[in-house]
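Subject: Predicted fold for Acyl-CoA carboxylase epsilon subunit, 71 residues

User T.R. writes:
Posting the sequence so we have a shared reference for the thread.
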Amino acid sequence: MSEPVTVDPGLLRVEKGHAEPEELAALTAVLLARAAGTAAAPTTAPSARAPRAGWRRLERENGFHAPHSWR
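User M.O. replies:
I've generated the structure tokens; pasting them so everyone works from the same file.
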């Protein structure tokens, strides 16, 4: 048989409740599969135009929106 694998105690932490070893193994398998899937994803050529930022500059926004306004 194979020898048991030692796990770093800081690798996963249960914040609340108690997780069984089987549950931690399933979670680890899902996280590793997801990490392997994103690493193997094909990269596309960069576009000629820079991507649009998901944030707005605060100096271009009005400072106050009334609670009854439509915006």
